[in-house]
Amino acid sequence: MATAFAPASVGNAAVGFDILGHALAGAGDRVVARRSARSGVRVLAIRGATVELPREAERNTAGKALLSLFAARQADFGVEIEIEKGIALGSGMGGSAASAVAALVAANELFEQPLSRDELYAHALEGEAVASGGKHGDNIAPMLLGGLVLATHERMIKVPVPRGLWCALAHPHFVLETRVARAALVEPYAIGDFVRQSERLALVLAGCWRDDLPLVRAGLEDVLVEPRRALLIPGFAAVKQAALSSGALGSSISGAGPSVFAWCEGETTARRAAAAMQAAFAGVGLSSDQLACPVDSPGAVVESRA
Fold first, then answer.
1. H-type helices in 210-266, by residue range?
2. Judgement on whether residues 135 and 11 belong to the same structural domain of the protein
3. Is residue 303 situated within a structural domain?
4. How far apart are the first and last CA of the chain?
5. Nearest-CA neighbor of 168 among 293, 52, 12?
6. Helix 236-245 crosses helix 267-283 at what angle (to 10 degrees)?
7. Which of these, 143, 117, 93, 79, lies nearest to 257 by C-alpha position?
8. Which of 24, 202, 255, 302 qualifies as a cystine partner to 92, CB 3.0-4.6 A?
9. Are 151 and 182 within one domain?
10. How does pLDDT run across 56-103, given as a tens digit for each residue?
11. Distance from C-alpha of 139 to C-alpha of 94, rounded to nearest angstrom
12. How, if at all, do strands 156-159 and 148-151 pair?
């Protein structure tokens, strides 16, 4: 038996749609995995969810990830899991991805020769696709590795985090389903929009590798996705402005939303920005949770094994 915890995450990181994200300390999902003499994957229980989630392995993010893993390894045993949800679904904090990652990290410990985190990545993508309809790793990768990660379909690349870079986040008590948020992006984009977004992604990545926060600030603006999704989040403009007025380097939508995040220089600014963002949501009648943590927060961990 093994228990693993996977943290929440900020997907897209403003300028890296579907390919850039970072871990969030302070919230996450936990999965207990046990060997079974009966082949296959069984989801025995899901606790902490506010809506009923499917327990059929093929329709569950954790179950689907494990089906992929056990098929690839041609396992001669099965697995039973229990999921404890600590991330609200439809929050833009990687709730579906966290269950898949925690399940994989826990079940991986049941094998005599566990796989590396890089080798688990493809299986985690299979699980993520159940919820989002596509294989994108901007939540999965930072959960597996921790910190800020560039995630393609084939690999995960750790991005150095500038010293003192913190994240502030406000999660309003409002559900925005990933599929709805993605539907807002179906209309074609002009090539110029892609060029401007590519420029900003390049600036952010260059700033990270050079430990240059002013360069990160210059690039941290989503001109591609945010304009189309902003209207789906009540009070978004006010929340973003609250973060910027508090000294944030930049602010945007976390994942598909409705959570809003901001990158800040130092803990003090991050905590000030988080409180201001929470107050801005309250101004439009939405209660919310807030957190502040280093962008270089840890990834999934094995909490116990027996």
1. 213-219, 226-229, 236-245
2. yes
3. no
4. 5
5. 293
6. 150
7. 93
8. 255
9. no
10. 999 999 999 999 999 999 999 999 999 999 998 889 999 999 999 999
11. 6
12. antiparallel
